[in-house]
Amino acid sequence: MAPLNRQVRLQSRPTGVPGPEHFLLAEAPTEEPGPGELLIRNEYLSVEPAMRGWVADLNNYSAPVPIGSVMRSLAAGEVVSSRHPDFQEGDKVIGWFGWQEYATVPAVAVTRKVTENDLPLSLYLGVLGINGVTAYFGLLDVGQPRPGDTVVVSTAAGAVGSVVGQIAKLMGCRTIGITGGVEKVQLCTDLYGFDQALDYKALGEDIASELAEACPNGINVYFDNVAGAITDRVLGHLAIGARVVICGTASIQSWTPVPTGPRVERILLTRRARAQGFVVFDYQHRHEEAIARLADWVRQGRLAFREDVQDGIESCLGAIAGLYRGENLGKRIIRLYSR
Ligand SMILES: NC(=O)c1ccc[n+]([C@@H]2O[C@H](COP(=O)([O-])OP(=O)(O)OC[C@H]3O[C@@H](n4cnc5c(N)ncnc54)[C@H](OP(=O)(O)O)[C@@H]3O)[C@@H](O)[C@H]2O)c1
Questions:
Q1: Residue 201 C-alpha to ligand 1 middle, in angstroms?
Q2: CA 12 to chain centre
């Protein structure tokens, strides 16, 4: 008999960060795959800050998740049965399988077949997945770091930020991380090798003077995952010719109404700086290049990572809200099953 499938469905649309009240844990029969489809048993589900945007009724880079449907998510799992010639039972796959225990999906939902078997599957959702690839192309293609540059990274202890900091070090840069809390500051310096880490929660407005001291020649690359007040203060310290990578806006609780802040045009003009938005999905065609390089760094012990693992599908309900409270120490994933 086909197993029962537990799913997390979007129940209502939040205006800001989605909490448990916006989701519903439901049961449904597991569907047999039709022609061209696969049945996948999810082992790990991903949790992303971007999910706030995916459930919002806002102009975004992807259509909003429909009310009542399974929450959109990347997941890592194993093919249970396949009616597509490129996949067979037992294949390990990453893809858009949603927050559910089993997924019956067309083969195009698979973003990657994991053929390497020397590294844990869960890493392909984090340091070797969307977060690592974001860090890789966001920093190297958009930030264009040069040896000796000073690189400042926000959400520095997180899944993306920790990889940005380490790649910047590998490129010969000085790295300054911005993060919240003593434990994360310590992670940044001790595990991720930042030259310095600043606790924005403890420093408040003093972060501006701390940055001035930490970056006496200005900031050459700012990898921005937060926007808002932290970014306003970082921008005041840009060096001539600086590159600002606009990767995330984690500190903005809601875009309705649109928050206001200082005008930055004069800073960009006088520093001849460039600010550029980045979306990892634009680099789909080059993901393998990044994954191969990131995996080599992991194997060589040159790229450290942490996973923030929660157990059971019910953990999904509050998982995004927890990210926005900064609870996660590393890449947040939900473990459903592992061998
Ligand atoms: N553009 C793209 O293609 C792309 C792809 C992936 C991720 N991203 C972005 O990259 C950023 C990091 O994502 P991630 O997956 O690596 O998550 P993460 O950093 O592992 O977790 C999110 C972190 O955001 C920080 N945060 C939450 N609310 C904040 C606030 N009000 N002010 C300042 N910091 C806050 C918290 O760290 P602290 O405790 O340090 O505050 C939290 O741990 C997000 O903005 C995400 O949207 C962008």
A1: 15
A2: 24
Instruction: Give 226's contacts (C-beta < 8 A, 6+ positions apart).
Output: 154, 155, 178, 248, 249, 250, 251
DSSP for 45-82, written as a single string: EE--TTHHHHHSSS--SSPPPPTTSBPP-EEEEEEEEE
Residue pLDDT, tens place only, 255-304: 888 899 999 999 999 999 999 999 999 999 999 999 999 999 999 999 99
d(CA 247, CA 241): 19
Pocket test for ligand 1, best of 155, 308, 323 (most atoms within 8 A of CB): 155
Query: What's phi and psi for 70, nearest 5 deg?
Result: -60, 135
Alpha-helical segments (H) within 6-49: none
pLDDT in tens, 166-188: 999 999 999 999 999 999 999 99
Helix ranges (H only) for 200-315 are 200-203, 207-214, 228-235, 265-270, 287-299
Q: Is the pTM of this model over 0.85?
A: yes
- Among 183, 65, 33, 157, which residue's Cα sits nearest to residue 175? 157
Residue 187 to residues 73, 198, 323, 330, 331, Cα–Cα distance (Å): 27, 12, 17, 10, 13
C-alpha dist (Å) from residue 269 to 138, 227, 245, 246? 22, 19, 16, 17
How far apart, in Å, are the Cα atoms of 44 and each of 72, 83, 89, 122, 210?
Answer: 14, 23, 18, 6, 39
Spatial contact of 92 and 337, defined as CB atoms under 8 Å apart: no
> Would you state the structure tokens that stand for residue 14, as one six-digit string?
């939040």
How far is ligand 1, taken at its centre, from the CA of residue 30, in Å? 33
- Residue 338 has a pLDDT of 67
